[in-house]
Amino acid sequence: MNRTCVSCKREVEEWNEKCGGCGFTLELVPDERRKARFLRGPSMGALLFTQGWTFGARLYFWFLISLIPAFGLVALGVCVVFGRRLSWKHGGWSDWEEFQARMRLMDIVGMVWVAMLLGAYLWARFV
Fold first, then answer.
1. Same domain (yes/no): 29, 76
2. Are residues 57 and 9 in the same domain?
3. Which domain holds residue 78?
4. Residues 17 and 56 both lie in one domain
5. How far is CA 45 from CA 16, 18, 72, in A?
6. pTM of the entire predicted model
7. According to the model, what pLDDT value does residue 34 have?
8. Which of 67, 104, 65, 69 is nearest to 84 (CA)?
9. Are residues 45 and 28 in the same domain?
10. Higher pLDDT residue, 10 or 87?
């Protein structure tokens, strides 16, 4: 585990303390706890763009479920709350960095999608 200050690169001896070199407040978290925290977090991409997110997250079953009108809200809820965990477990990712980069990309795609929809609505409404 990396035990150096991200600001000044000085060695840090204690967990969760300030760096002795620059005073930067550090939180040293083991990789497994950091991964678990990321996996437990909700997915903004799934909230904003469920079908696209499920496809990009390699959750093809949930993609099909989200297309059925009666089950679309169920798929939305499951993917927002449990989507990252399901994708990491069943997505066939080669490594953690690839998975994390894809989740961030899908969150950005969801935000861009909502911005485009809002822009199209405003354009149609006022033009």
1. no
2. no
3. 41-126
4. no
5. 31, 34, 15
6. 0.70
7. 82
8. 104
9. no
10. 87
